[in-house]
Specification:
Elements (H helix, E strand, L loop, with lengths): L1 H22 L20 H5 L37 H9 L6 H24 L9 H14 L5 H6 L1 H16 L7
Helix pairs in contact: 3-4, 4-7, 5-7
Length: 182
């Protein structure tokens, strides 16, 4: 009876690890500011604490191969990430609504700019098409012309009013279009 319990426990642990692997299967983007490459996945023995490696399932139950290299991280920390959905990008932009320059202005302005760029990318790559988000995309384009490609703190501080105004405009626009971010 003890042997069956151990086998069941091992099977449950393996199933839980497999579920975690599927839910955490995407490689997190490395900190672009540090320029560090993405960390390698831990070996099976490190993840399970067991000396017995597990083999990947074969056949129709097999998971996709995670060995495909991910795209290189953007060189600019304010550059948008890839593959983000509009609702996720909008949620991270909304997270800046209660922040201000009161504590760390450089971080705040850089973050707002980064979140706007990620939302712009998500809107332009949304299955509905960029024509579904004309006003927000136009406002971000106007901001980008004003910033002229310079995402330095000095330039963001000089154009703080436009940066925050763009964020607030898009927040209002998206609130009036709830189907776009749910």
């Amino acid at each position: 009876m003890i042997h069956k319990t151990s086998v069941r426990r091992a099977a449950l642990v393996a199933a839980a690890l497999a579920a975690l692997t599927v839910s955490c299967g995407t490689t997190p983007e490395p900190d672009a500011a540090a320029g560090a490459p993405a960390p390698a996945a831990p070996a099976t023995t490190e993840a399970t604490g067991s000396a017995e490696p597990t083999s990947a399932p074969e056949g129709s139950d097999a998971l996709p191969d995670d060995s495909t290299p991910s795209p290189a991280p953007p060189a600019d920390p304010s550059a948008p990430g890839t593959g983000e959905k509009v609702r996720d990008a909008f949620a991270t932009l909304q997270a800046t609504l209660n922040d201000s320059c009161a504590t760390d202005c450089e971080y705040f302005l850089t973050r707002v700019n980064k979140e706007l760029q990620e939302l712009d990318w998500a809107m332009k790559n949304d299955p509905k098409g960029p024509g579904h988000f004309p006003e927000p995309i136009q406002k971000i384009e106007e901001l980008n012309k004003t910033l002229a490609g310079d995402s330095s703190y000095k330039n963001l501080k000089d154009h703080q009013k436009e940066l925050i105004g763009t964020r607030d405009f898009i927040n209002t626009w998206m609130q009036d279009h709830p189907d776009d971010y749910r």
